[in-house]
Amino acid sequence: MPEIKAIFFDQDGVIVDTERDGHRVAFNRAFESFGFDVRWDVPKYHEMLQVGGGKERMRHQLRTGGFGREIPPDQEDALIAQLHQCKTDIFIEMIERRQLPLRPGVHRLMQEACRRGLMLGVCTTSAERAARSILEGLLADMHFDLVLAGDVVNRKKPDPEIYLLALEKTGLRPERCVVVEDSSNGVKAAKAAGMNVVATVNDYTRDEDLSLADIVLSCLGDEDGPQAELIRSRKPWKIDGIVRVTDLVNYFQ
């Protein structure tokens, strides 16, 4: 059986539970600062999450619901770019103020992976500035062998392009990699690239179709914090509330 060599993490909803109280709030503040009559409540943002990428969500809103006033077609691209820049600035400020903590078990599992000599990577369609803010702030003591973020790929999840790029850059076989995702789109992307997939659900994704994932968990678990609950696994597997690197390596071998 192939030996696990790397763990790749999605960012939003996996490393930090950013969606509901992070990105959604930042989008709304950006809309307000531009004078647009748009506000995404919690259910609406869940709907918007089915569109991969922040700029793409804004464009979807513009074309399906509008911004409250007419936007000339020749101004659309520039406006989306400016609006997304504003949203990113707001989001990064929230990260820098430590308003969004790491999800349970993420830091511990990353430390264990580093001690074991596994490669660590982040594969996210979130803006590169936002990704760097989290990695250089909340995870400043971690070494990442690979960071793919923002517009590094043309096609967003569920397309596997970002994970295929990760394989190309690391030179690893897909069966030697474990991906930690949280959403149906993310799981589909990683599986389409042939990788092993662990899904850690959150409020937005717990009811999504995650049937392609090899393991579905409530979180990764911390000894002095929330414990991991096993929701489903493809083969018999037991955990004691803490998901360790050794557990994952043994599971996928």
Q: Gap between N and C termini, in Å?
A: 5 Å
The name of the CATH superfamily of the largest domain reads HAD superfamily/HAD-like
Number of helices: 9
Task: State the low-pLDDT regions, or none.
Answer: none
Q: How many domains make up the 3D coordinates?
A: 2
Keywords:
40% helix, DNA polymerase, domain 1, single chain, 253 residues, Rossmann fold, 2 domains, seven-stranded mixed sheet, alpha/beta
Structure description:
The structure is a single chain. This protein has 253 residues and is α/β, with parallel strands linked by helices. The chain folds into 2 domains: 6-17 and 101-251, Rossmann fold, CATH 3.40.50; 19-96, DNA polymerase, domain 1 (Orthogonal Bundle). The protein has 9 helices and 7 strands. It has helices at 19-33, 42-48, 54-64, 76-96, 106-116, 128-137, 161-170, 184-192, 245-251; strands spanning 6-9, 119-123, 146-148, 177-181, 196-200, 215-217, 230-233. Helix 1 (19-33) packs across helix 4, helix 3 crosses helix 4 (76-96) and helix 4 (76-96) packs parallel to helix 6.
